[in-house]
């Protein structure tokens, strides 16, 4: 455990939670519980459908299933603890719990990010090299992309977690947030956090900016290949295959950019909290709907799955 200069032992942190009035506490509890259950259910349905239906065993849907898995875990890092704390008198989290939360938050946040890149690359190959699609996007390449994402995100989140672990925390243990957010935690440390801040800025920038640029390049190539031979059919095809991915990407990067790149003049923690809610609760919840509502293949798979169920009931 950590011994501070004034010999206080910090074994747990207090999470201030959301800026909600006590009389609205139950309403928001119900709302977040419903949102979390929707997230879990929606993503589980996507994963199950994709694995059950052999029509969906294509790179695009296997990546989508990976994204759903990552979203499901990502919101499970923060939501159950938030729900528990909303109901408890002392909303605390043990020191080890806090580090665990930091680790998995970074892990699944970054994993989802890299899966989005793999999906963009997949769309790029599908539209720019339709004839070579199956040879380029081989199962081996898909698996390598997924394994690579897992390996790099393991190192990335381990690095940050170990760097936080070497800090000492003294008297102040109140985190003005609803989960152990790494930058909120750095503000509480009573040892020097210069290294942490640099690493967070540089590595954090790299793992957000590079994937974003890769996605932009993929889409730039897709657009230029469509413009070379402009046909209504080509444009429709591109929109129908890329539309959902583009919406998910905008949702993800919109919130991240809004949070980290738009400076807040008056250190507003309310804005930070609301933005954090956007990407921890809302984005993982919406992803499955964005994909399934607009997607004929997923709807077909759902129909087939339900139909098969009904048949087996009749027998
Ligand atoms: C993730 O993608 C890989 C490679 O395409 C696939 O083999 C695996 O089943 C996917 N994982 C999930 C949870 O869908």
From TrEMBL:
Membrane topology according to the record: Multi-pass membrane protein
Transmembrane regions listed in the UniProt entry: 27-49, 102-121, 141-159, 198-217, 238-261, 273-293
Record has Transmembrane as a keyword: yes
Record key words, sorted: Cell membrane, G-protein coupled receptor, Membrane, Olfaction, Receptor, Sensory transduction, Transducer, Transmembrane, Transmembrane helix
Principal cellular location given in the protein's record: membrane
Subcellular location: Cell membrane
SUPFAM superfamilies found in the cross-reference section: Family A G protein-coupled receptor-like
Top-level taxon in the UniProt lineage: Eukaryota
One Pfam family from the record: 7tm_4
Family label: Belongs to the G-protein coupled receptor 1 family.
GO molecular function, one term: G protein-coupled receptor activity
Name of the protein described by the UniProt record: Olfactory receptor
Assigned GO CC terms: plasma membrane
Domain G-protein coupled receptors family 1 profile: 42-291
């Amino acid at each position: 455990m950590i011994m501070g200069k004034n010999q206080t032992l910090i074994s747990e942190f207090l999470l201030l939670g959301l800026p909600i009035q006590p009389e609205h506490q139950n309403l928001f509890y119900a709302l977040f519980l419903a949102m979390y259950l929707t997230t879990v259910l929606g993503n589980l349905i996507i994963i199950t459908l994709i694995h059950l239906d052999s029509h969906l065993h294509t790179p695009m849907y296997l990546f989508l299933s990976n994204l759903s898995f990552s979203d499901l875990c990502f919101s499970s890092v923060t939501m159950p603890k938030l729900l528990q704390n909303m109901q408890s008198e002392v909303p605390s989290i043990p020191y080890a719990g806090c580090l665990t939360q930091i680790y998995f938050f970074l892990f699944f946040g970054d994993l989802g990010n890299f899966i989005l890149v793999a999906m963009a690359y997949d769309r790029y190959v599908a539209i720019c090299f339709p004839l070579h699609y199956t040879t380029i996007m081989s199962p081996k390449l898909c698996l390598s992309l997924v394994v690579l994402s897992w390996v790099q995100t393991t190192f990335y989140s381990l690095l940050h977690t170990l760097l936080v672990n070497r800090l000492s925390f003294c008297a102040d243990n109140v985190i003005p947030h609803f989960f152990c957010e790494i930058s909120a935690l750095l503000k509480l440390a009573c040892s020097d956090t210069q290294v942490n801040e640099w690493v967070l800025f540089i590595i954090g920038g790299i793992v957000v900016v590079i994937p974003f640029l890769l996605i932009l390049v993929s889409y730039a190539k897709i657009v230029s290949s469509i413009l070379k031979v402009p046909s209504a059919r080509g444009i429709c095809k591109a929109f129908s295959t890329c539309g959902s991915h583009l919406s998910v990407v905008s949702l993800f990067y919109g919130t991240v950019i809004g949070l980290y790149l738009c400076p807040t003049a008056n250190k507003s923690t309310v804005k930070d909290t609301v933005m954090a809610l956007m990407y921890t609760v809302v984005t993982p919840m919406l992803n499955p709907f964005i994909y399934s509502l607009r997607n004929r293949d997923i709807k077909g798979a759902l129909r087939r799955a339900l139909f098969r169920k009904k048949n087996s009931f009749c027998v």
